[in-house]
Design goal:
Length: 297
């Protein structure tokens, strides 16, 4: 799901005016996805040369994977092309198109659902997590998903329509911090809270983790929430594997409840970051956090 980007150059908001986005939904009801993919590829050079994603992604491939200059440029192109695809896939869901989902670790999610206590699901800007809301359907609990409140009315309306069918309620991020009370209330009720954990929203509260062998700051809030409530945690990634095909990866996140609270937060955060890195090594072109993570420290 697209979230607020704080003071970063890339806000995370979906491009386009509301009427443009709604027109895209209408088109996708009648046109095949592959045709829209092709049209998107024609305008991709504009985003590569004039957008804000080229430099941070180029540095990501050079720093994280040690790729050469030419290979990094090729991977930046592949990254932008796949990002365009996952955005179109989201609108395809709004238009009623069907997708195939392969589940990896779904049993962990179902086990957590059987417990009386609520739990936290940590997502990221890797792959297309919003698709989880259309496939990973809770059976016993209600899920409360933290979302970027500044999206257009078109995006929010279509999200709500689709997610409400699957026992998922949106919690928009608000400046008055009311979303914090909503998340606390959801966990106290034994429900599920889903939120991204890979981008700092302009807050000074962060936790330092090793990411591809280098120190990087990740937001503390979600990890502190899970530790403070003493609830379990999972990491969920939804990665594109083919035309209208995704794989949902559910991974357990552990922390030592006998250690100090600060240590628990660091343990939980580092375990999440380790899972994120593992997924990105498997799907290197599906990292859509368009800012320089290490420089931003």
């Amino acid at each position: 799901m697209a979230e607020a980007g704080g003071n970063r150059p890339w806000s995370g908001r979906t491009d386009g005016l509301p009427w443009m986005q709604q027109s895209l939904v209408v088109m996708l009801r009648f046109l095949p996805l592959w045709l829209l993919y092709g049209i998107m590829a024609l305008v991709l050079p504009f985003y590569l040369f004039f957008g804000k994603g080229f430099k941070p992604m180029y540095r990501f491939f050079r720093t994280a994977f040690g790729y050469g200059a030419l290979k990094s440029c090729v991977y930046v192109w592949r990254n932008h092309f796949q990002f365009g695809q996952v955005v179109l896939d989201r609108f395809g869901c709004f238009a009623g198109k069907r997708y195939r989902f392969n589940m990896d670790g779904i049993g962990l999610f179902r086990e957590r659902e059987q417990e009386d206590a609520g739990f936290v699901v940590f997502s990221s800007h890797a792959g297309n997590y919003e698709m989880a809301g259309y496939a990973l359907q809770p059976e016993r609990k209600r899920m409360h998903a933290l979302v970027y409140a500044a999206e257009t009315e078109t995006i929010m309306r279509n999200r709500q329509e689709r997610l409400s069918r699957h026992q998922i309620r949106m919690i928009p991020v608000r400046e008055d911090l009311s979303h914090l009370f909503s998340m606390n209330a959801a966990l106290e009720a034994g429900d599920i809270v889903s939120l991204p954990a890979d981008r700092i929203y302009g807050s000074s509260k962060s936790v330092e983790c090793l990411f591809f062998g280098k120190k990087a700051d990740f937001p503390m809030g979600g990890f502190a929430l899970a530790v403070r409530k003493g609830v379990g945690a999972l990491a969920v990634f939804v990665m594109k594997e083919g035309y209208r095909t995704y794989r949902i990866l559910v991974r357990p996140l552990q922390y030592d409840t006998q250690s100090g609270r600060s240590e628990q937060v660091v343990q939980l955060a580092q375990n999440y970051v380790a899972e994120l890195e593992s997924v990105l090594r498997r799907y290197p072109t599906q990292w859509y956090n368009y800012y320089d993570l290490w420089t931003e420290r």
